[in-house]
Amino acid sequence: MSSNDTTTTPDNTPPGTPPGTPTEGSAALSGLLRVLGAIERAGNKLPHPFWLFAILSALLAVVSWGLAAADVSANNPADGKSVVVRSLISVDGVRSMITDAITNYATFPPLGTILVVMLGVAVADKSGMLTAMLRAGVSRVPARWMTFALAFTAMVAHIASDAAYVVLVPLGGLAFRAVGRSPVLGIVVAFVGVSAGYDASPLITPMDAVLSGLTTAAAHTVDPGYTVTPLSNYFFSIASSVVLASVITLVTEKVLARQVAALPPETETADAGADPVALDLRPEERRGLRRSGLVFLLFLAAIVVAMIPTGSPLRGEGGSIVESPVLSGIAVVLGVLFALLGTVYGRAAGTVRGSRDIPDFMAQGMREMAPILVLFFAISQFLAYFTWTGVGQVLAIRGADLLKDLGVTGPVAFLGIVLVCTVINLAMTSGSAMWALVSPVFVPMLMFLDVPPEATQAIYRIADSCTNAITPMSAYFVMALGFLQRYRRSAGIGTLASLTLPLSVAMLVTWTLLFYAWWALGIPLGPGAPVR
Question: Which residues are CB-contacts of 503 (< 8 A; sequence separation ≥ 6)?
């Protein structure tokens, strides 16, 4: 992957100016790049998220000590009881931090869920099924449908988490070039689809498991029995993936295609054809996809048939489907499903040769989860301290009271959350880390305004996604730039930002309006998850 070239470019850019930096007729973009540069410099000074939450825990200890000394409290409207701030810098606080540390980590809601899901996803990934599925999504697609097909495939690709960037971004350039279109457009469409649409997918993704676990933990400060499942935003996520793919298609065809066509002519670099991912599937890969697709349909049919009897063990109390073990234990169902599909695919494609390959694939997947598990330890302790001290509840209650006094309703608060989190996302690109930081305040605060946690989580998804495609703080922004430079050596941060900005803004506006329409119509966000 090539880095930013700082030599003189074919368009006579002054020496020392990064390639792709606009020099004339683009004052607005130049201003944006200065802002992004400032954000990048400030963001680079932030510590690793692990240490960030360690520092926040230390600050919380000091703040809780001061608030406890001032006898700060609030009346919980949910049960009428008074919530008093307790100090971590006290005998009980120190004992709690030491004796509850393991429990805080082991009972952290997202931990078990994401581990079980990823055991299955690892088999599907290491067997090659996910990569083959993504390639199949854009192979042999007519040129007129390529943009939508690639954008929607990017939404599906979220099931592969960050691996989607590595597979689909170079594949996008190859797919567009195969139908006689600019590979630059293909790279931008794939990158924006994966990054700016990160929290939208027609499938349940690992991110659903992480967000729902954090939302559940935040909701427990108001209602200890409240549970948010990975399916809580599923209906909204399906609709979002279709709408966002359509927005990407419209903006690409009406704006970006002309913008790319207006770029100065440039000869492709020598390695432009050395794409790491082949577009066409081999016969054994197609056979594997066909067989795994058949097993997927049989799996779904078996569950549906098993749930038909009202006394089925797969139904909940009173024959309920919404509260059934299938939905409440969806992490287990997904883990088993992906492991099964990956095994079937691997046996047909020749990537699974024996039974011991399956646990080996799972172990490889767990090794890749190590950074998240380390981060989860710091996050789990911070959230436990936040709950123990009562600071989170007091902030939420006081914040809700302030909003009520100002006449601010849920829909107005939604816009505030979108704006705040969108700005934060420019510097803190980890969606789980940011949600762990803000959910303990936003979720209970809006619960006091009669807004379900699932709705707060849905609006957060929008803010967490759209600016991913324009911030240089994202490692994948730099990666996408490297792939772009395979086709345009002179491309720089300015080139990529100018192409992704129209898409990011259009997606942010459209996605927000979609949520407001969803809210107004009162459509459930997912199974058993009302929007209001």
Answer: 188, 192, 196, 247, 248, 251, 252, 256, 469
Q: At what angle do helices 27-44 and 493-521 cross, to 10 degrees?
A: 90
Tokens of residue 328, six digits: 């409440």
Of 347-356, 371-380, 383-392, the range with the highest mean pLDDT is 347-356
Higher pLDDT, 318 or 465: 465
Most confident of 20-34, 169-183, 269-283: 169-183
Nearest to 119 by CA among 334, 326, 372, 294: 334
Q: What residues are paired with 75 via a beta bridge?
A: 82
Distance of alpha carbon 120 from alpha carbon 114, whole angstroms: 10
Mean of per-residue pLDDT scores for the chain: 82
Run of H or E including 73: strand 73-75
Tally Cβ neighbours within 10 Å of residue 86.
17
- Tens-digit pLDDT profile for residues 295-351: 999 998 998 898 888 888 888 777 777 677 887 787 888 889 989 999 999 999 999
Residues 6+ away with beta carbon under 8 Å from 254:
none
Measured CA to CA, the distance from residue 125 to residue 102 in angstroms comes to: 31
The string of DSSP letters for 201-226 reads -SS--HHHHHHHHHHHHHHTTT-TT-
| Consecutive H or E run containing 506 | helix 493-521
**Helical (H) or strand (E) element with 434:** helix 431-447
pTM as predicted: 0.76
Structure tokens that stand for 104 in this block: 């805080």
Of 40, 46, 92, the closest CA to residue 68 belongs to 92
Residue 348 token pair: 């047909």
Distance CA 135, CA 36 (A): 33
Flag whether pLDDT at 399 surpasses 50: yes
Which distant-in-sequence residues (6+ apart) come within 8 Å of 414 by Cβ? Answer: 459, 515, 516, 519
Is residue 504 a contact partner of residue 469, using CB atoms and an 8 Å limit? yes
**Quick check: 332 and 98 in contact, CB under 8 A?**
no
Biggest alpha carbon–alpha carbon distance for the chain: 76
Residue type, 26: S
Q: Please state, in angstroms and rounded to a whole number, the distance separating the CA atoms of residues 213 and 233.
A: 13
Mention every residue, 6+ apart, whose C-beta is less than 8 A from residue 521. none
